[in-house]
């Protein structure tokens, strides 16, 4: 019997905590051959998932959104990752004509001037490329963790993303920061050195800053805006 995607979610929702991440990934690739994809920003969490995918040779595509405004450290860890795993992480970049018009008309740093400019910039540099990356896939794996934000505490590990019409799986949702760091160290995985300087999630350089211990990670993004407006469209209601 062929299950619909929503039926499949219902069937497997109870499973992620009962099977290992590796088993769950394997089952997903068997259920959706060639249609499971993982988005990495080369964060601590994403590096753990990349390691699991590539050392197990799971047939899962890995891509990143190269906004053109990332930190030099992010490009360095991207290169180091390609080298360590003998791979080439797929890059999705902004549509060049959209970006040319946007930057020409509003200036290179217009995101500081209004929420609308910031949202338009995020749409062109992140949301639109993401839609292209997810197209024709059935499952999207992310590195979201519940500890990052209060919004994520009740998030299911497997969920249906209505906007992108895709199943989302968050394998590290319930991992602690210490568990992630330990896994990185034990497996000698390359990581972004900005994590050692107080950066929790690392996005575009002009829009990300370090936070103090205990601060919500939203404090590290778009700090000049009201906190209720901080959302870029990658994950509804959360910053990424
Ligand atoms: Fe633009 Fe900042 Fe959004 Fe990056 S995070 S796409 S630079 S507004």
Task: Please outline the helices and strands.
Blueprint: H1 5-12, H2 21-31, E1 36-39, H3 44-55, E2 61-65, H4 72-85, E3 90-92, H5 96-106, H6 115-134, E4 139-141, E5 158-161, E6 166-169, H7 177-186
Parallel strand pairs: 1-2, 1-4, 2-3, 4-6
Antiparallel strand pairs: 5-6
The structure holds iron/sulfur cluster.
Overview of the molecule:
This protein has 240 residues and is α/β, with parallel strands linked by helices. Helices cover 36% and strands 10% of the residues. Strands 3-2-1-4-6-5 form a six-stranded mixed beta sheet. A hairpin with a 4-residue loop joins β5 (158-161) and β6 (166-169). α3 (44-55) crosses α7 (177-186) and α5 packs antiparallel against α6 (115-134). The longest helix is centred in the middle third of the chain and has 20 residues, at 115-134. It starts with a helix and ends in a 54-residue tail after the last helix. The relative contact order is 0.17. Bound molecules: iron/sulfur cluster.
